[in-house]
């Protein structure tokens, strides 16, 4: 499973992995499980933030609207990196189901909001 996450979040996951000895994917799945009941609300909030970031970065020449930023950095407002993690197909299927039921645009968004809420409950 390929995931693109902000570098700061990947660094936190590395610290947790070193402290606990748990594999990255276990930490990620535990975060999703812990936030399961709140995923739809977290996605709505994240979609609102994304829309605001995109609106703030848009420019217009009076005829067309242009995005000032492109790619993942435009959404996360920080550098991102991809990681390939192995997990059971059953877990991938469960995540895909959660994407559908939560309204997430993809697994990256689902995992990002779950991890942020789980690792930083104040956000």
Provide an overview of this structure.
The protein has 123 residues and is α+β, with helices and mostly antiparallel strands. The chain contains six helices and four strands. It has a domain of 83 residues. The strands form two sheets. Strands 1-4 form a two-stranded antiparallel ribbon. Helix 2 packs across helix 6 and helix 3 packs across helix 6. The relative contact order is 0.24. The mean pLDDT is 86.
Give the topology string: H per helix, E per strand: EHHHEEHEHH
Strand content: 5-15%
> Taking strands numbered 1, 2, ... along the chain, how are they ordered across the largest sheet?
1-4
Mean of pLDDT: 86
Work out the helix count: 6
Report the radius of gyration as a whole number of Å: 16 Å
Biggest sheet record: 2 strands, antiparallel
Q: Calculate the terminal CA-CA distance, rounded to whole Å.
A: 26 Å
Number of strands: 4
Helix content range: 55-70%
Taking pLDDT < 50 over at least 5 consecutive residues as the criterion, the unreliable ranges are: none
The rough form would be described as globular
The secondary-structure class comes to: alpha+beta
Task: Produce the secondary structure layout.
Elements: E1 2-6, H1 7-20, H2 24-35, H3 39-57, E2 58-60, E3 65-67, H4 72-76, E4 80-84, H5 89-102, H6 107-119
Antiparallel strand pairs: 1-4, 2-3
């Amino acid at each position: 499973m390929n995931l693109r996450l902000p570098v700061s979040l990947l660094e936190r996951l590395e610290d947790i992995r070193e402290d606990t000895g748990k594999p990255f994917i276990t930490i990620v799945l535990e975060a999703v499980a812990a936030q399961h009941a709140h995923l739809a609300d977290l996605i709505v909030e994240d979609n609102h933030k994304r829309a605001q970031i995109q609106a703030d970065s848009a420019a217009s020449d009076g005829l067309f609207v242009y995005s000032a930023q492109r790619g993942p950095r435009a959404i996360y407002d920080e550098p991102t990196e991809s990681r390939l993690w192995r997990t059971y197909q059953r877990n991938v299927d469960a995540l895909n189901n959660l994407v559908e039921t939560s309204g997430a645009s993809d697994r990256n968004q689902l995992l990002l909001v779950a991890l942020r809420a789980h690792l930083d409950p104040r956000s």
